[in-house]
Amino acid sequence: MQCVFVQFRCTPGKTYEVATAIYDREIVSELFSTSGDWDLIAKVYIPDDADVGHYLSENLFDVPHISRTLTTMTYKAF
């Protein structure tokens, strides 16, 4: 499994609605509300046989009221 972090910027006033929709899909391992430029951050495990971009697009990025995303790939450090 490949671990990625995805940050979400939501349409103003829709963050809770977006968070609920993301959580209901049971795709993310963890989901947090954040301060700063982004509204939410999710930890997502991508199956080894899946393309990261396609997987996220097909499973998360079609949630209404997401205005922007930032995906951070992770790599084993040790």
Helices and strands in order, then pairings?
Layout: E1 2-10, H1 15-24, E2 28-33, E3 40-46, H2 52-59, E4 66-73
Antiparallel strand pairs: 1-3, 1-4, 2-3
Q: Which spans have pLDDT < 50 for at least 5 consecutive residues? A: none
Domain unit count: 1
Rg (CA only): 12 Å
- Say what the CATH topology is: Alpha-Beta Plaits
What is the H/E order? EHEEHE
The average pLDDT value, as a whole number, equals 96
Shape descriptor reads: globular
At the first level of CATH, what is the class? Alpha Beta
> Strands of the biggest beta sheet: in what spatial order?
2-3-1-4
Helix content: 10-25%
Distance between the termini: 17 Å
Helical stretch count?
2
SS elements, strand count: 4
- From the coordinates shown, what is the CATH architecture? 2-Layer Sandwich
The CATH homologous superfamily is called Lrp/AsnC effector binding domain/regulation of amino acid metabolism (RAM) domain
What is the beta-strand fraction? 35-45%
Structural class: alpha+beta
How many strands, which pairing sense, and closed or not: the largest β-sheet?
A: 4 strands, antiparallel
Organism: Pararhodobacter oceanensis
Pfam families: AsnC_trans_reg (PF01037)
Protein name: AsnC family transcriptional regulator
InterPro entries: Dimeric_a/b-barrel, Tscrpt_reg_AsnC/Lrp_C
